[in-house]
Specification:
- By secondary structure, the protein is an alpha+beta fold.
- The protein folds into two domains: 70 residues, no CATH class; 208 residues, Alpha-Beta Complex (Fumarylacetoacetate hydrolase, domain 2).
- Helices cover 15% and strands 33% of the residues.
- The protein has seven helices and 19 strands.
- Strands 1, 2, 3, 4, 5, 6, 7, 8, 11, 12, 14 and 17 form a twelve-stranded mixed sheet that branches. Strands 9-19-18-15-16 form a five-stranded mixed sheet, with no helix packed on it.
- The chain is globular and about 55 Å long.
- The two termini are 36 Å apart.
- The chain binds magnesium ion (MG).
- Magnesium ion binds next to loops.
Length: 290
């Protein structure tokens, strides 16, 4: 089951993707459906039941070709910062440092809600503040149930689904200011989407191929099997002293092959197009704009 947020006739709506069709759930339900993904995620897995009820109704008028719809980020404005994980693939930790940089405990940082943009939206180059913009293709986990001190064994009960995230990073700001927040939170630096795939459709989230291309050139190619700290561990560690809530997003970290990892570095410039594909989810495409 794939869910998306879209703008239809000027209105933000939630849709369900079936084959190449977009079913406007907001319209099909005649108003009896949450208006935003943040509200919808409060229902957690019960949302699937609600959608199945709608799909039993006449949905002809609410169904349009997916290609005709302007997709937004699935959660266009998260309620809080996006949780991110640094150096969660060993080869990436090494490309930016050495084996000594492979973490022994998950490294968390965050991106502000204003970073989020949708598929095909432009990533601002921010040339006035950075000369070192970089890409990071990542698997995003969407939380669907409130929890505190979640046990690893029960962590997947708290997952609603998965999406793709491009953790755009200003390497120079990250370095100069010592702490990640500024370099990770430039406006438009969190392309997300194109969909949220419900966990029932992704049986093996730790065996997904993840690839990033820049202008068609393959830069990152890995599988989520290589995560140092897997999804249950991230959820468990994050929630030990902090409540996780429906709509929270965890970007699980990026594999080797970021621009900064090349000699000389292959950093982003205006006009570049980044395509991130994760098996079973889709492809997230964005270009950099000056
Ligand atoms: Mg990252």
């Amino acid at each position: 089951m794939k869910f998306a947020t879209a703008r239809v006739e000027g209105e933000e709506v939630i849709g369900f993707i079936q084959d190449s069709q977009f079913i406007n759930l907001t319209r099909a339900s005649k108003g009896d459906f949450p208006k935003t993904m943040n509200e919808a995620l409060q229902f957690g897995d019960k949302l699937i039941h609600k959608v199945n009820e709608i799909l039993k109704m006449d949905i002809t008028e609410a169904t349009v070709p997916l290609a005709s719809v302007k997709l937004l980020a699935p959660i266009p404005r998260p309620a809080k910062n996006i949780f991110c994980v640094g150096k969660n693939y060993a080869a990436h930790a090494i490309e930016l440092g050495s084996e000594a940089d492979i973490p022994e405990a998950p490294m968390f940082f965050s991106k502000t809600p204003t970073t989020v943009i949708g598929p095909h939206e432009s990533i601002p180059a921010h040339e006035h503040v950075t000369e070192a913009l970089d890409y990071e293709g990542e698997l995003g986990v969407i939380i669907g149930k409130k929890g505190f001190a979640i046990e690893k064994e029960k962590a997947f009960d708290y997952v609603f689904g998965y999406t793709i995230i491009n953790d755009i990073t200003a390497r120079d700001l990250q370095k100069r200011h010592k702490q990640f927040l500024l370099g990770k939170s430039l406006d438009g630096s969190c392309p997300m989407g194109p969909y949220i795939v419900h966990k029932s459709a992704l049986n093996h989230p730790h065996a997904l191929k993840i690839e990033t291309k820049v202008n068609g050139e393959l830069r990152q190619s890995a599988t989520t099997e290589q995560l140092i700290f897997d999804i249950p561990e991230l959820i468990s560690v994050l929630s030990q002293g902090m409540t996780l809530e429906p709509g929270d997003i965890i970007a699980t970290g990026t594999p080797a092959g970021v621009g900064m990892g090349f000699t000389p570095p292959k950093l982003l410039k205006a006009g570049d197009t980044i395509e991130i594909t994760i098996e079973g989810i889709g492809t997230l495409i964005n270009s950099v704009n000056s």
